[in-house]
From TrEMBL:
InterPro entries: NDK-like_dom, NDK-like_dom_sf, Nucleoside_diP_kinase, Nucleoside_diP_kinase_AS. It is found in: Cytoplasm. Homotetramer. The keyword Phosphoprotein applies. Its cofactor is Mg(2+). It comes from Desulforamulus hydrothermalis Lam5 = DSM 18033. SUPFAM superfamilies: Nucleoside diphosphate kinase, NDK. Its main location: cytoplasm. This is Nucleoside diphosphate kinase. The active site is at H115 (pros-phosphohistidine intermediate). It catalyses: dZDP + ATP = dZTP + ADP; a ribonucleoside 5'-diphosphate + ATP = a ribonucleoside 5'-triphosphate + ADP; a 2'-deoxyribonucleoside 5'-diphosphate + ATP = a 2'-deoxyribonucleoside 5'-triphosphate + ADP. GO terms for molecular function: ATP binding; metal ion binding; nucleoside diphosphate kinase activity. Its EC number is 2.7.4.6. Residues 1-138 form the Nucleoside diphosphate kinase-like domain.
Length: 149
């Protein structure tokens, strides 16, 4: 089953939104297979956001994502990479569709509360960047038969 990397950013942690954000994915039927709070180093931040190196907002982005703890998650389920991005909403919260996480909780592109992998390849790369293999848990859920036909 497909996996994605999701991360409550430092603004989401500081604002006490961790539980509500995780709940949205649990309630959708997705399964958490990795979960931890951590402080990102600059080195890890620069790797994670490597595609944006050299862009005008890059330093600010690295400063922000290392400014406080984050909650890192590996989440599994049907089409989870694309669906999680839909649930998050557009990068700029002011452009995000009503009801999405970013529209519900944010107003500024540099304080958009959550990260989600943008493709299955990114998801694989990011999960490997943030989790050691033994931190990812394989388990079944009795409820899966009520989520998947
Ligand atoms: P992530 O899930 O965090 O990767 O966001 P995204 O995939 O929706 O957007 P993208 O990867 O293009 O950008 C990464 C992060 O950089 C965004 O979440 C924003 O916080 C920030 N960012 C992107 N574009 C801009 C910009 O034009 N200005 C500023 N200030 N920040 C930006
Ligand atoms: Mg991105």
């Amino acid at each position: 089953m497909e996996r994605t990397y999701l991360m409550v950013k430092p603004d989401g942690v500081q604002r006490g939104l961790v539980g509500q954000i995780i709940s949205r994915f649990e309630q959708r039927g997705y399964k958490i297979v990795g979960l931890k709070m951590m402080q990102i180093t600059r080195e890890l931040a620069e790797k994670h956001y490597g595609e944006h190196a050299g862009k005008p907002f890059f330093q600010g982005l690295v400063d922000f994502i290392t400014s406080g703890p984050v909650v890192a998650m590996a989440v599994e389920g049907k089409d989870v990479v694309a669906t999680a991005r839909e649930m998050m909403g557009a990068t700029n919260p002011l452009k995000a569709a009503p009801g999405t996480i970013r529209a519900t909780y944010g107003v500024d592109v540099g304080r958009n509360v959550i990260h989600g992998s943008d493709s299955p390849a990114s998801a694989e790369r990011e999960i490997a960047l943030f989790f050691r293999p033994e931190e990812l848990v394989d388990y079944g859920r009795a409820i899966d038969a009520w989520i998947y036909e």
